[in-house]
TrEMBL record:
Record-linked Pfam families: MtN3_slv
Protein name: Bidirectional sugar transporter SWEET
Recorded superkingdom: Eukaryota
UniProt GO MF annotations: sugar transmembrane transporter activity
Source organism per UniProt: Populus euphratica
């Protein structure tokens, strides 16, 4: 009964995480359409990529006992594809300075994963110590992933606008972290449960802020082209009025 419940929670966690990973599609559709990354940050997606890489490795039989954590492998493997795609799109449309920032952040992430995988595979020779080592690194990455939206939360509070904090991303983050917290507790695996003890409250905080500021928007400054267009229309209208006045005279 316990294994069945754990598997059911794992399946629900997979579903919620798939929605979480796919939620930024709307954001990146906007970036592609406007050909600009605007005020969106790439940091959450880079940290999420590291998190997915580490937990995929954690769930594989190299670290875990056989396929005891198969749901962890499947969803984080899918997460790698999503996060990598988002980073590539962001890199393509960001400024030259933004490209440098992305590269500077991505390279250490890849190095951390490669070093962690190499040490666990070749320096440690039993599953117990491998799980402790990889789980500890993944725990730090996961807490960082759930904590990265705090940058956006600060922006929301300062601007009193949720324009750059998509609702579905916050909602599915709360949902996924709640399911994986339950999965980790049922599995008696603190490396799966602990980061979600942080992620679930942070997701709930984002939802509260969204409900509070969702009706407030940032007033955008008019484009120069719009100002020139309006000025031209005003001149045309003034000419029509003058002509009408002269005719009456």
């Amino acid at each position: 009964m316990g294994d069945t419940l754990r598997l059911a929670v794992g399946v629900m966690g997979n579903a919620a995480s798939m929605l979480l990973f796919s939620a930024p599609i709307l954001t990146f559709y906007r970036i592609t359409r406007k050909k600009s990354t605007e005020e969106f940050s790439c940091v959450p997606y880079i940290i999420a990529l590291l998190n997915c890489l580490l937990y995929t490795w954690y769930g594989l039989p190299v670290v875990s006992y056989r396929w005891e954590n198969l749901p962890v492998v499947t969803i984080n493997g899918l997460g790698i594809l999503f996060e990598f795609s988002f980073i590539v799109i962001y890199f393509w449309f960001t400024s030259a300075r933004g490209k440098i920032k992305v590269a500077i952040t991505v390279i250490p992430v890849i190095l951390v994963f490669c070093i962690t995988a190499a040490i666990s595979a070749f320096a440690l020779h039993d599953h117990h110590h491998r799980k402790i080592f990889v789980g500890s690194v993944a725990l730090v990455a996961s807490v960082a992933m759930y904590g990265s939206p705090l940058v956006v939360v600060k922006k929301v509070i300062m601007t009193q606008s949720v324009e750059y904090m998509p609702f579905y991303l916050s909602f599915f983050s709360f949902l996924a972290s709640s399911f994986w917290m339950a999965y980790g507790l049922l599995s008696h695996d603190l490396f799966l449960a602990s980061p979600n003890l942080v992620g679930s409250p942070l997701g709930f905080l984002q939802l509260i802020l969204y409900c509070k500021y969702r009706k407030r928007v940032i007033m955008e400054e008019p484009e120069k082209w719009d100002l020139e267009k309006n000025e031209e229309k005003s001149k045309q209208l003034q000419l029509v009025i003058n002509d009408s006045t002269n005719d009456k005279s």
